Every structure is written in C-alpha cells, then in structure tokens.
Amino acid sequence: MPESKGRPKPAYTPPRTAQSKVAKPNPRWFVPVMLGLMLIGLVWVVTYYISGSHGYPVPQIGRWNLAAGFAFMMAGFLMTTRWR
User: Which residues touch 47 (CB under 8 Å, ≥6 apart)?
Assistant: First the structure.
C-alpha cells in the first residue's frame, strides 16, 4: 500500500507572555537595616544573659527579653530572603 504525503506542519511558536518582572536591586538602606536588626537582637540577648537577675535591657518584662531579642534577629534573617 502506498504512503500518503504528509502536510507540512507550521513551526512551533511559543505563546506570548507578559514581560517578566526584572528583579530590581535593593535600596541602599536595606543591608544596613538587615544587619542592624540582627546585631540589635544579638546585643539584646547577650545583655539579658550578662545582667543576670537584674533582667536588663527591660527589667519589667523579665524572660520576654529573650523573645524580644530573638524577634529582632528573626526580622533581620527574614530580610535576608529578600536580599538581591
């Protein structure tokens, strides 16, 4: 049995997409704020541990000073995920 001729297929052209968003660099203040938050948190926690029973930097909140220090550090670390 003879084979039939195939029809020519048009070349594949991918569908048009919207222009992809170009990642813009971070503003100049981003890295100093990021590092500052991490350092403030570190100093906060170290100050709490060194002060012992006095409970500095904020004596009224007691052990919550640890949470405050770690919150500062976590905010700095979360900023590193957006750093370009």
Answer: 56, 57
- Could you tell me the two tokens for 22? 């170009």
> CA–CA separation, 46 vs 56, rounded Å?
10
Q: Helix-strand-coil percent breakdown of the chain, rounded to 5?
A: 55, 0, 45
Residue 49 per-residue DSSP state: H
Q: Are 58 and 23 in contact (CB under 8 A)?
A: no
Q: What is the pLDDT of residues 11-31, one digit of tens each?
A: 888 888 766 677 888 999 999
pLDDT tens-digit series, residues 37-49: 999 999 999 999 9
Main-chain phi, psi angles of 69, to 5 degrees = -65, -45
Name the more confident of 55 and 32. Answer: 32
CA dihedral 33, 65, 57, 60 (to 10 degrees): 140
